[in-house]
Design a protein that fits this description.
heterodimer; A: mainly alpha; ABC transporter involved in vitamin B12 uptake, BtuC; 2 domains; two-stranded antiparallel sheet; 72% helix; B: mainly alpha
Chain lengths: 399, 302
């Protein structure tokens, strides 16, 4: 591992466009010209990712082997469950859709410099609002489904609106208030599920289980295709349209430009007349609405009833998708699909008797593995730039 | 009546002690500028390692060393990822929480544990005091470390040079860097102290209170610790007060139904977070967070 790291560091040193005559670095093997260096660097990046992911899977395999399991069965099972056939691909897509929706929302607020990390709570409140509309508004049908999804988005926006209110009225940091509100949201849902006039299931079950009635089939999102063949829920379409729309708004419109400016340099943004409070509130509401909508999609597309664990870490994972994708909406689509594949594979794996916990461990390791290469390269690049600029590098210079 | 008070007070203290250990650690980490959300992972792995350690070494006290080591391992991973590689601290923290929960659950069934508990130490004379004597002065002995750790942490953070450096990297890392302080190193050290103390707090749960490890034993206590630091306005006193307040609320939640009062459990479970938010909201001037909290520091970047 260390050997590899050093190698990539060297290639990065080469890739840096140095203003002064390029310093000869040891071991650059004649790759001094820019295009060659870039090719080297790309190869190094790919290699680094491969090594990093291999390490993550290796540790998982080691964990399985140490506890008398057989890694040779675990990984094929994950492959079978996620991408091997059209049928299993459907599971991947369905798992990816809510993550994608949460992630694009997270991107909007993070890009605007407001680090909303409360998607898990916003998703919970969204799912709750959606369930309320889907169960209580009659007659059930297409319009109610749309209304439920809108209510879900509104619910998420409301929860994020609290964050905005606290930020721009009382000056409470977004990170802090959004984090704390996650745990409040869980209890709000728990309260609603324990009260018959709110969401608790009617009939004998309601007294024992804390869950809602099942949604009527008329307010469920349509699903295209069925298992052995290619299939996907319409949540995926919502996710893709939303990702494309937000990707375009962020990069191609004045609003997106202003949002990004606010995030990059709030002072400069203020000087050109960006109203930080107003625009920041919009960003937070959009990110909350996305998380809430993801809750609605989970509810009407997969769970069909609301339980205390409806969010099931989708909010946190969606945030991770956004951060691993480095706040790029297009990249987030791919990362969400990767996460979806892992979860679909993991879900299938649990049917073969492997505990869910191992799947969670594997997911966590993969996330760390995905974060590692870009971080390492960034550090190497910065160090090289400092060295090239002739800045005095302190002993054991901080990264 | 006074019997009930003693019972509730006793359970409040028992529930607060692990929070307070982790709270001191989280306070140190946050003052150095890390909004450390992997404190949950540190506590959980500390609880697990504590239980395993005490049953492997046939010595409950050794479990605490194991717990601290486990918390430290989590901290080292977090510190190197976020304050050496500059990976986003929330990605690392969230991931470590998932990882710790997964690993401890997975290994729970694989390792056989014999329940073992450290003993109670009664402070001579004092524990005879009516009502408050038993809850405060007849605790499992590791709890009394708190009496030493809190003042020590206060002295180190407020009076020593190192503590000043720690606080300065949390307030203004650029200025600290210019004066020759190794910003990210200080932040890593803060995280490691947090890991050791949170690991101790976790081990306290498993080795001192319960005697064994249960799945997801900490159940979000790490986040309550974060709420306590926020509630305390990033002061040590406030943090400890927050830990005991939230521990007390938890004790009420458990005790009131048994005593025949009906109370809304959801409200009590959510109350630490709501109280912390309200405190931030209404005392925003006084409860000021470290200015560079949760902001990565990269040398030479503007």
């Amino acid at each position: 591992m260390t050997g590899l790291d050093r190698a990539s560091g060297v290639t990065d040193v080469v890739a840096v466009p140095a203003p002064s005559p390029p310093s000869p670095s040891p071991g650059d093997g004649g790759a001094g010209t820019a295009p060659g260096a870039r090719a080297w660097s790309t190869a190094g990046t790919v290699l680094l990712y491969v090594a990093s992911l291999a390490a993550a899977f290796g540790i998982s395999a080691l964990l399985v082997a140490l506890t008398h399991g057989s890694p040779s069965k675990v990984f094929p099972a994950m492959y079978d469950g996620s991408v091997r056939s059209f049928g299993s691909l459907g599971y991947t897509l369905d798992n990816a859709a809510p993550l994608m929706i949460v992630a694009v929302g997270a991107i909007v607020s993070t890009r605007a410099g407001l680090f909303n990390i409360g998607q898990e709570g916003q998703l919970t409140i969204g799912a709750m609002a959606g369930a309320f509309v889907a169960l209580k508004v009659h007659p059930a049908g297409g319009p109610v489904l749309v209304l439920a999804l809108l209510a879900a988005a509104a619910g998420g926006a409301l929860w994020a609106g609290l964050v905005a209110l606290l930020r721009f009225w009382r000056g409470v940091e977004v990170v802090i208030s959004s984090l704390l509100l996650v745990f409040v949201a869980g209890q709000v849902l728990s309260y609603a599920l324990s009260r018959a006039f709110l969401l608790r299931e009617h009939g004998a079950n309601g007294a024992n289980l804390t869950e809602s009635d099942q949604l009527s089939s008329k307010v469920q999102l349509p699903h295209f295709g069925s298992y052995p063949h290619f299939n996907f829920g319409s949540g995926l379409l919502i996710a893709l349209v939303l990702a494309a729309a937000i990707g375009l708004v962020m990069t191609r419109t004045t609003l997106g430009f202003r949002l990004r400016m606010l995030g990059h340099n709030a002072t400069a943004a203020k000087h050109v007349g960006v109203r930080a409070a107003w625009l920041g509130t919009v960003a937070l509401l959009v990110s909350g609405a996305c998380a809430g909508l993801a809750g609605g999609v989970l509810l009407t597309g997969q769970a069909y009833r609301i339980t205390p664990t409806i969010s099931n870490n989708v909010g946190w994972n969606g945030l991770l998708v956004a951060l691993v994708a480095r706040n790029n909406a297009w990249v987030a689509i791919g990362v969400a699909l990767g996460f979806g594949a892992l979860q679909a594979g993991g879900g299938f794996l649990t049917t073969t008797g492997v505990p869910t916990d191992l799947v969670n461990v594997m997911e966590a390791l993969v996330v760390l593995a995905a974060v590692f290469p870009p971080a390492l390269q960034e550090v190497m690049r910065r160090r090289a730039r400092r060295a090239a600029a002739g800045a005095p590098v302190a002993v054991g210079a901080p990264a | 009546m006074s019997n009930d008070v003693t019972t509730i007070l006793g359970s409040a203290v028992r529930l607060s002690v692990p929070l307070a250990f982790a709270g001191v650690g989280e306070y140190v980490a946050e003052r150095a500028g890390t909004l450390n959300i992997s404190v949950e992972a540190m506590m959980l792995s500390g609880a697990y390692a504590g239980a395993v350690g005490s049953s492997v070494s046939h010595n409950a006290a050794a479990g605490f060393l194991w717990g601290m080591a486990a918390g430290l391992i989590v901290a080292v991973v977090h510190a190197n990822f976020s304050h050496r590689l500059q990976a986003n601290t929330f990605v690392v923290g969230l991931t470590l929480n998932v990882l710790a929960l997964g690993v401890t659950n997975y290994l729970l069934e694989k390792v056989h544990m014999t329940p073992r508990q450290v003993g109670v130490w009664k402070v001579p004379l004092l524990w005879h005091i009516p009502v408050v004597g038993k809850p405060l002065f007849a605790e499992r002995w590791p709890a009394y470390f708190l009496v030493g750790i809190v003042p020590a942490a206060w002295w180190v953070m407020r009076r020593s040079r190192w503590g000043l450096e720690m606080r300065s990297v949390g307030e203004n890392p650029k200025a600290a860097d210019v004066t020759g302080i190794h910003v990210n190193k200080r932040r890593r050290q803060g995280l490691m102290i947090c890991g050791i103390l949170a690991g101790f707090g976790g081990a306290y749960l498993s080795v001192a209170e319960v005697g064994t490890f249960n799945s997801n034993m900490t159940a979000g206590r790490g986040f309550i610790v974060i709420a306590a630091v926020i509630f305390g306005g990033w002061t040590l006193r406030g943090t400890i007060a927050g830990c005991f307040l939230f521990g007390g609320v938890d004790a009420l939640r458990l005790a009131l139904p048994a005593l025949g009062y009906t109370i809304n459990p959801q409200l009590l479970i959510a109350s630490p977070y709501v109280i912390a938010l309200l405190a931030m909201c209404f005392f925003a001037k006084r409860l000021r967070q470290p200015a560079a909290l949760a902001q990565p520091f990269e040398r030479g970047a503007t």
